Amino acid sequence: MNDLADVKEMKGKVLFNGVNILDPQTDVIELRRKIGMVFSRPVPLPLSIYENVAYGLRMAGERNKAKLDTAVENALRQAVLWDEVYDRLDASGYAISGGQQQRLCLARVLALEPEVIMLDEPTSALDPVATSKIEGLLTELKEKYTIILAPHNVQQAARVADYAAFFLMGELIEYSEGKEMFMTPKDKRTQDYVMGRFG
Predict the structure, then answer these.
(1) Contact at 8 Å (CB) between 65 and 76?
(2) 57, 68, 90, 179: which sits with the fewest CB atoms below 10 Å from its CB?
């Protein structure tokens, strides 16, 4: 994504399985199969529900219809969306609600069976019912996947985090188990943020 942003300088390393993903020699196509990303605003492709989920698999070369069918159904089930859309898989990905679109984007990631799923404020534009569905889904998915979540509020982080990190102005201030971070933060800046004194 940095290729699309006006990033002047990057310092340090981001290691994934011992490899610096910022290294220019990194195979970004392979990396994208291992690390999936879901953005704060749902971004369904201008395709059917089925093709939205199958897209990554098709790009990876999968052509077997039976395998695609199975992968699409499994991913939609994992995203708790199958029961809502199974009878209209040919409908546009835009024809479903915002909460359903967010789960559709998650299903697209899940179809590739990544090692890590990154979520940027996945419920910021959703109502409380859709938010609850996504949070419940994350609780189930973290049994199988490593999930990195940038939540849109402290309460959500406290509800879903096994581990939490607090960054301020690009600096890592504190890292600990989630309950510890939100109940007994060690750094005053973390405490001030958790208590709502800023942010």
Answers:
(1) no
(2) 90
Domains and CATH numbers, the chain: 2-138 (3.40.50.300)
Q: In what order do the strands lie in the sheet with 35-38?
A: 35-38, 116-120, 146-150
Under 8 Å between Cβ of 74 and 80:
no
Residue in 193, 196, 155, 190 with CA at minimum distance from that of residue 176: 190
**Span of 5-19, 33-47, 125-139, 161-175 with lowest mean pLDDT:** 5-19
Mean pLDDT, to the nearest integer, of 77-83? 93
Binned at pLDDT 50, 70 and 90, residue 58 comes out as very high
**Would strands 163-168 and 146-150 be described as parallel, antiparallel, or unpaired?**
unpaired
Phi first, then psi: what are they for 149, rounded to 5°? -120, 125
Query: According to the model, what pLDDT value does residue 7 have?
Result: 66
